[in-house]
Structure formats: C-alpha cells, structure tokens
Amino acid sequence: MNAQFFPNQRFRRLASILMAAAAISVFVFFQSAAAQQPQLSLADFLIGLRSKKVTLPERNKLLTDAAKARGVTFELTPEIEKELENTGADKDLIAAIRSKATVVKIAATVPPKTEPKVDPVPVSTPPPPDHAFYQKRAGSFMTKGDFDSAVADLNKAIELSPSDASDFTSRGLAYYNKKSYDLAIADYSKAIELKPSESMTYVNRGFAYEKSGDSEKALVDFQKAFDLDAKNESASLNLKRLKDEKAARLAKEQAAQKPVETPKPAPVDAVPSEIALGQLSLAQATKMVMPVYPDMARKANIEGKVAVDVTIDTEGNVTAAKAQNGHPFLRQAAEEAAKRSKFKPAMFGSVAVKATGFIVYNFTRNNGQ
Fold first, then answer.
1. Considering the chain, what percentage of its residues have pLDDT values greater than 90?
2. Alpha-carbon distances, residue 112 vs 108, 109, 117, 118, 159 (angstroms)
3. How far, rounded to the nearest angstrom, does the alpha carbon of residue 326 sit from its chain's CA centroid?
4. What's phi and psi for 357, nearest 5 deg?
5. Domains of the chain and any CATH numbers
6. 218 falls in which pLDDT band (50, 70, 90)?
C-alpha cells in the first residue's frame, strides 16, 4: 500500500501502521513454517549415508537438500568432517553442512529477550565405527602396504562379526605379506571352515603351505581349489607345477637308489649272426651286374642315383634287394641288377657270416646307367 493515495497527514499515518503490521505478519508466518521442520543432527546424516535404500550419490543429494533447507544442530569440527567423509559424504554435502553450521551458531546468540530461555540442543555424538567401517579401512591399509594397521582393523572387524569368512581371508593375506605363514594358514583354515566352497581360499592357503615348506599340503589345497572351480587358472597352473616338481623329485630319488649295472663284456669267441658292411664296392664284388636303363625313364629324361639295400648269405649271394630311394622308374632295374650280383663272403675271423649292405647305382643318359 502506498502512502501517496492518502492526501492528508492522518491517512498517511494510518497507511504506515497497516504496512508495518503486514510485514510483521509475514515474518511471523515464515518463523512458524521454519519451526515445523527440525534441524538435522550428526546422527541423522550418518544414518542417512549408511542407508542402502538408494544409491550413495542419491543419498548425498537428498541430504544436501535437507541440510540447506533445515540447517544442522552441531558444529562441524575437523574430526566430524573426517568421519562424514569416511561414511560417504561428498564435497557438496560437506559444503552445505559447513554453511549451515555457521548459521546455527549466529542464530543461537540473538534470541529475543521476551522468549523463554531454551536449553541448548546437545550436539549428537557420532555412533562408534561399525563392522563395515573397519573392513573398508583395513582394505585401504592393505592397498598402501600397511599390513600391521590392516591386521589391527581386521581384529576389530572379527570381534564385531566373527562369522564373516572374508575377514579371516583378508587377515590371512595380511599375515602372508608379513611372512607370518603359520598365522596365515590358521586364518585361511578358519575362512574355509566358515565358507568351504570358496576356491581362492584354498589357493591362498596352498601358497602359505608352500612358503612354510609343506609342498604336499600345498598340492592338496591346489587340487581342492581346482575341483571346486576348474576355471580357476591359478589353481590349475600351480597344481600342474607342483605335480611336475614332485614327479621330477621322485625320478631323481629312484635314479639315485638304482645300482649301476656294469655291462658284461661279450665273449671273445662269440660269432655274430650278421654284420653290416655299409656301401658295397666293386672291390668286394665277385660279380657286379649293372642295371638296364628303362626305356620309359630314358624317354622321360629321368636320371639319378638309386641306393639298394641287400642281404648277402655266407657264400656271397644276394638273397634280398630293396631300393631305399631314387625315382620309381629306376628302382626295379636297380633291384634286379643287385639280385644278380655276387660278393665275397663276409668274414668274422675265420668264420663266414651273413651280411647286409647297400649298392648305389647312378643312372645317367650318357653312360646308360
């Protein structure tokens, strides 16, 4: 309402009074509406962040909007801010809480004197870290290589939830990296007791057994891991490796235990049933028959060498002849020539014996064979 519509002084004063009353009514209305939505405590934020009903980004968005609209009841210390971040708060939520924490402190210092004295709202104490908190932080320590801190956090996690097999597996891995293999084996065994179907736990215990010097138990664990999951590549490769090592070790032990046998010398007067003469020459032959050049081979311009294996009896006769190489068109002629040849008997001392050897025929068009 504008005072210019009232021409005299009395009406202008009346307009001013009415406008002030309207402003007070609006202020009271907004004060009442704000009072209907209580401010958020630290517990409200921590519980909201841990809720699993929606995704973490959605939880952060909802809590950020609520913080901006309703304010907070606590001061944001570095410790509380760190706890919120560990629980999953993102930077937008932290910024909203930081801005509202400052507003709460200022508003609390200027209450109207006419209002009754209200006791200050106590700052909510954050709940103690739970099982998931220690699990997550232990994983972070493991990633950084701080295995002592990881073991400490996993000890607390196991105290809170002693039936979670994954905690024993994780602590076993930490002990393994600390080279405390007996403790690692104990934790892996407890994890297997709680969850016997987990293939990788057997693989991990197998490594710990091998490091402690018990390859037999390691082999059993790798076999069990492979039986549970044939696609477990680590189980398959290490099972084969230990089996190969065991086989090589047993072979070496058997070789060391087997007595060395001294070969018995052959009697000096033992006559062999047959001796090998190698390639036979004209000097050894009493009759060397040359093969006839086949017409088909000659017309086809086929040349080359043919080696014929022969068997000779005690009188020097060729009893068998078989071409071992050469062109097929030339082999039969070479075999027939060899069968008709004759050689000096092969001698072992003064005794004639059977012999084997081979004859090489060279077929060329220039010399006819």
1. 54
2. 10, 10, 9, 11, 51
3. 57
4. -175, -170
5. 3-107 (no CATH), 131-256 (1.25.40.10), 274-363 (3.30.2420.10)
6. very high
